[in-house]
């Protein structure tokens, strides 16, 4: 079965980022990843010619375009209650 093409949908709400839908993780391990990069380059060339851009993959999977996930906080583990001594 052939996967659907990678489609760039548009800019994020803040206008600083573009978001795209990857049909599956296989895209990252296939030559189709080049297709994604080409589409991003074309979009950026049309939107902001000559402006450098960064390409970042979000391994957590943003569900809503324009929503930047908050970094996970690594808090302290709650203290365990003391074991009653048997004596």
3D structure, described in words:
It is a single chain. The protein is an alpha+beta fold and 87 residues long. The protein has one domain (1-62). The chain has one helix and two strands, in the order ββα. The protein has a two-stranded antiparallel sheet. β1 and β2 form a beta hairpin. The chain is elongated. Residues 70-79 have a biased composition (Basic residues). Residues 60-87 are annotated as: Disordered.
Outline type: elongated
Tell me the strand percentage band: 5-15%
Number of domain units: 1
Main sheet: strands, sense, barrel: 2 strands, antiparallel
Element order, helices and strands?
EEH
Mean pLDDT: 67
Radius of gyration: 21 Å
- How many helical stretches? 1
Please list the strands of the largest sheet in the order they lie side by side: 1-2
Contiguous uncertain segments of 5+ residues: none
How far apart are the termini? 68 Å
- Structural class call reads alpha+beta
Number of strands: 2
Binned, the helix content reads 10-25%
Q: Which key terms come to mind for this protein?
A:
1 helix; about 10% strand; alpha+beta; about 90 residues; two-stranded antiparallel sheet; elongated
């Amino acid at each position: 079965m052939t996967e659907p093409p990678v489609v760039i949908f548009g800019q994020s709400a803040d206008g600083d980022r573009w978001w795209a839908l990857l049909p599956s993780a296989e895209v990252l391990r296939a030559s189709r990843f080049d297709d994604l990069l080409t589409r991003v380059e074309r979009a950026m060339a049309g939107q902001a010619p000559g402006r450098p851009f960064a390409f970042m993959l979000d391994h957590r999977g943003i569900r809503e375009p324009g929503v930047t996930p908050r970094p996970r906080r690594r808090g302290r583990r709650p203290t365990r209650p003391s074991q009653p001594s048997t004596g």
